[in-house]
Amino acid sequence: MSEAASLPLSAAARAFAGAGVPVFPCVPGGKQPLVEHGFHDATTTPEMVDGWWRRWPSANIGIPTGTVSGVVVIDVDVHGPANGFAAFERAEYAGLVDGWQVIVNSPSGGMHAYYPATPSAVQSCWQAARAGVDFRGDGGYVVVPPSAVHSNGASVPYRVRRINPGPASTLDSDRLRDFLNPRPELRPRPAPGIGREADRSADAARLVAWVAQRPVGERNHGLFWAACRLAENGMRPSDALDALSAAAEKSGLGEREIAVTVRSAYRTARAHPRRSPSRAEARGSSPLAADGWFSRNPSTRCEPRVREL
């Protein structure tokens, strides 16, 4: 990335694509995608990349995060009352964010820490709003150097701050999320018999109180997580919906979104019984070399999903 950061935008986009990292154009001086399907249109095809930057020579460079690019990003924010740097430092002391490969200063005064994606695992995006930290994984994207953002009449670039000379390590994103945004602890499932319904009610009460306090950016995910826990604890879907609806509405979610989220949680809980990855699995060997953190298997290609522009 340090080499790409010193190139013109079009050449940098071509360099990323040549390293096997799919790219897509974003508005000059901004973060919004210029292509119809956003990061889903990202490609490594040279002809497509060259065509985009001929059409928009000042376009910023976006890359999808997660499995498709092989990288995930911790986005440290400094907007509002939250201090993302303090949260990142706490996570660092806890040993949860070791192994970053590249640190990039963002135009807003924040920071992007890049890690290799965990092979054969889905690492979905999440937000810990109160901590000032976002996680960009599957389903997300970031803007990369040498892109710049217009702010207060000035063009402020993304800058590579540090490159770790050591080996990269994968990130246990679920464990980091639970550290930054703790969930209420539930009792272990009791054996069938007397007391089971009372335990379910106690779990539901704790989850309801927790869901009602979710801030913007965490509401839908918090409801989904709570519904999954109730599903795992044996509560019927209709009872879970009744228990969680009022709290979710209080947090700002609409009736239809609540119902859809709870149903989705129950389908997920049934299809994928909960399993926490071991530390060894979460911090397995990195597929990215220290001197080429953006290098990928050349046989792994990301083809365009729309016509050439």
UniProtKB/TrEMBL annotation:
Residues 172-188 have a biased composition (Basic and acidic residues). Residues 13-171 form the DNA primase/polymerase bifunctional N-terminal domain. Residues 208-271 form the Primase C-terminal domain. SUPFAM superfamilies: Prim-pol domain. Residues 171-198, 268-309 are annotated as: Disordered. It holds the Pfam family Prim-Pol. This is Primase C terminal 1 (PriCT-1). It comes from Microlunatus parietis.
